Amino acid sequence: MMNKFQKMMSGTLAGCLMASALMMSAGAANVQTYIPSGTVQAAAQNTAQTRTAVKINPQSADIYAEGIPATFPSEDGKTVYTALSYNGSTYMPLRTVGRWMGKNISWDGASRTVFLSGTTEKSYPCADDDAYHKEGVKYVGATGHATLDKGVKVLVDGKQQIFKNQKGVTIYPLFYQNSIYLPLRNIGELTGMDVTWYSAKAENDVNAIFLRMPLSDSKRAEMETYATNLMKQLLDMRTDTQKIKNCASAVKNGGYTDYVVTDKATAMAALDSIKRKAQTIRSGMTEQENPIRYYNSSLMNELDFLINNADTVMDRVKNGRVVVGSSNPDTSVVDQTAVMFGADNTMLDCERMVRMLRQNMDRLF
To answer: What is the pTM of this model?
Structure first.
């Protein structure tokens, strides 16, 4: 919520600077601010000494929090921020940290203090949520300059936090687009989550950052056994999904080319096999804890979809014309349900789940 500032007397340049600085930081505030007029000039001079414009860049790594692909929404969900890079470190919005911690967050513009306090339910905003991809949502990139502010204090349950980098040098929050940012290293300290980085090693690889609560060796081994066994079963099922793709042939349709299932016998056999294997895999799956809960749930839903739709797709293959791809921009000509039986969604999600545990991006198939 934006703060409401009392009008300030404009007699000096310093007074104007103070008003500008307070307005820039208002986006994080929940507390009304009153500045006695006699202190405006001194406060403005102090602000000028502690605030520095710094060059920022986009942050290229995918970020996962407790196995969930992270996103950074505003309080009302109408703005989605991005992580950014400054001075070799990755920074992310502090408001999201409050949600990860299960803390209320507020901002006092007068003392330039961020408060994280109380107890609320922890939540992990997910980059895949439809709420963050609908019309009207504003996406904030990371370009230009942010403001490094040495005067900002961060209090967690009343205790001031001092942040340092790996060399022990004190570091300070950044203001960017009305949001306060902290480095991931310090976010790990606040949340109690381990932070690990992975650097891309191959052409199709990506950079990734993982934040997760510490796991015991035994729990990690248990989860990895579950995930890798699941991957073996899905790889076996994938031999049938590949057959679905191979059953399609290019067929001219006016000015466009459709990819139609022409080898119906092979497609029918593959669909039946996918259904049976999906049922077997699904029956052995159980609910899991973080950090693999998110992708495990996705896999359950994907397998349920295959099981519930296999018979109807087989009927359409047997008795009709099933299009699994087309150069026609009208996507309605494609049987999207049939396409799912030739897709690699389940393998990809299982790969991501294994990655949460192994902390690597090596291709698993």
So the answer is: 0.79
Between CA 282 and CA 328 the distance in angstroms is 35
φ, ψ of residue 235 in degrees (nearest 5)? -65, -35
Buried b (16+ CB within 10 A) or exposed e, 330-346: eeeebbeebbbbbeeeb
Element (H or E) spanning 117, and its range? Answer: strand 113-117
Q: What is the per-residue pLDDT across 177-229, written as a single tens digit (0 to 9) for each?
A: 989 999 998 999 999 999 998 888 777 677 899 999 999 999 999 999 999 99
| Whole-angstrom distance, CA of residue 3 vs CA of residue 33 | 7
What value does the mean pLDDT take over residues 34-54? Answer: 56
Q: Which helix (H) or strand (E) holds 365?
A: none
Sign of the alpha-carbon torsion through 249, 252, 256, 261: negative
Q: Which backbone phi and psi does 319 adopt, to 5 degrees? A: -115, 0
**Nearest residue to 95 via CA among 15, 169, 205, 175:** 175
CB 41 within 8 A of CB 12: yes
**Other CB atoms within 10 A of residue 49 CB:** 10
Q: Among all chains, which residue has been given the structure tokens 């004190």?
A: 170
For the segment 127-179, what is each residue's pLDDT rounded down to a tens digit?
A: 999 999 999 999 999 999 999 999 999 999 999 999 998 888 999 999 999 89
Q: Is the peptide bond before 291 cis (omega within 30 degrees of 0)?
A: yes
Helix 293-319 with 264-283: angle, nearest 10 deg: 150
Sign of CA dihedral 49, 55, 61, 62: positive
Q: What is the C-alpha separation between 188 and 174, in angstroms, rounded?
A: 17
